[in-house]
UniProtKB/TrEMBL annotation:
Residue ranges of domain SIS in the record: 22-161, 177-303
UniProt cross-references to Pfam families, sorted A to Z: SIS
Domain of life: Bacteria
Source organism per UniProt: Rhizobium mesosinicum
Identification of the protein by name: SIS domain-containing protein
UniProt-listed PROSITE patterns: SIS
Key words, A-Z: Aminotransferase, Repeat, Transferase
Length: 317
């Protein structure tokens, strides 16, 4: 077992520490702007959707965009509550965006796993919980932790039982995976609402780990063009939404007819994984399983995820 894999399976005690470690907080009337880069931006997209569903107005913006052209995203960008997500707390664009927002009058919350980082030192509110010491270049445990902490920040209760649900999903997926993904080199991740950011994260994770071509779409968007690429090299991961399961299952039927294998989280597929949590927590519960999927796809193609090609733990300009 390599370190990436070990860390993915050992992440749950860190979840247990983070559960209940922070309460709902922030400035209720301000627009919430979730900002981050890479994985942290994908998480931001999902968190903004969750925040809106809890009646906190929210958007998600990549770090460099919020730094350089905030007025294209929100005209009164100075009067916002910026939630800057960064594992390292050192990513240039995210730290600079947090500093600039603060200087302009915004309230800035940092969500990170590094209490001594530049981001942690340049915020009005710090939300932080330690990560696994062996977490490597590819972000796994910290991604889950930042989602968990941010959900708590927007007032979502995260029950202790989520740990068992997430562990079970990762183990069940892992038990049946090798055969399903053998000979697949094009991975598509579909998720709607709060699961779209998580689908993007599944795609980014698998691409970073395995160097394979990955894509992510809102489920029904996939029929509007991208479906032309589906063939017997395609694996589609569907993150079913409880409110749209029927339409998504119909799409899955079409994809299977065209040669794709389908891994269904919470709905039909060649591999069906029961998701026993509500949509409000599903984004968090599926993350470890998506991380192990990336690792297994990499192993199937003999790619080392401990030193992924062209990647560094922190991107600074
Ligand atoms: C963000 C990030 C990661 C990516 C890579 C480089 O880091 O873009 O998502 O996987 O390792 O950094 P951070 O701001 O969350 O530390």
């Amino acid at each position: 077992m390599n370190t990436t894999e070990k860390v993915i399976f050992e992440q749950f005690p860190y979840w247990e520490k983070a559960i209940g470690s922070n309460a709902a907080s922030g400035k209720a009337d301000d627009l919430l702007v979730f900002v981050g880069c890479g994985t942290s931006f994908n998480l931001a997209l999902s968190l903004a959707a969750y925040a809106n569903s809890l009646k906190c107005r929210a958007i998600a913006v990549p770090g460099a965009e919020w730094l350089n052209r905030p007025s294209y995203f929100w005209p009164e960008w100075q009067k916002t509550h910026v939630v800057a997500l960064s594992r390292s707390g050192e990513t240039t664009e995210t730290v600079a965006a947090a500093k600039a927002s603060r200087a302009a009058g915004a309230f800035v919350t940092a969500v990170t796993v590094e209490a001594e980082s530049a981001l942690a030192k340049n915020c009005d509110q710090l939300i932080c919980s330690p990560t696994h010491p062996d977490e490597g270049i590819v972000m796994t445990v910290s991604a889950s932790l930042m989602v968990l902490l941010s959900l708590q920040m927007i007032g979502q209760t995260v029950p202790a039982s989520i740990v068992a649900s997430a562990r079970q999903l990762a183990n069940t997926l892992d038990a049946s995976l090798p055969d399903i993904i053998k000979d697949r080199s094009h991975f598509v991740f579909l998720g709607g609402g709060p699961l779209f950011g998580i689908a993007l994260e599944g795609a980014l994770k698998l691409m970073e780990m395995s160097q394979l071509l990955t894509q992510a779409f809102h489920p029904l968007e996939y029929r509007h063009g991208p479906i032309s690429l589906v063939d017997e090299k395609t694996a589609v991961v569907v993150l079913y939404s409880s409110d749209q399961r029927e339409a998504e299952a119909k799409l899955v039927g079409e994809l299977r007819e065209k040669g794709a294998v389908v891994i269904g989280f919470g709905g039909p597929g060649d591999l069906e994984l029961p998701v026993d949590v509500d949509l409000s927590l599903a984004g968090l519960a599926v993350l470890p399983a998506l991380q192990i999927l990336g690792e297994r796809a990499a192993q199937a193609h003999h790619i080392d995820t401990v030193s992924p090609r062209h990647l560094t733990k922190v991107v600074t300009l």
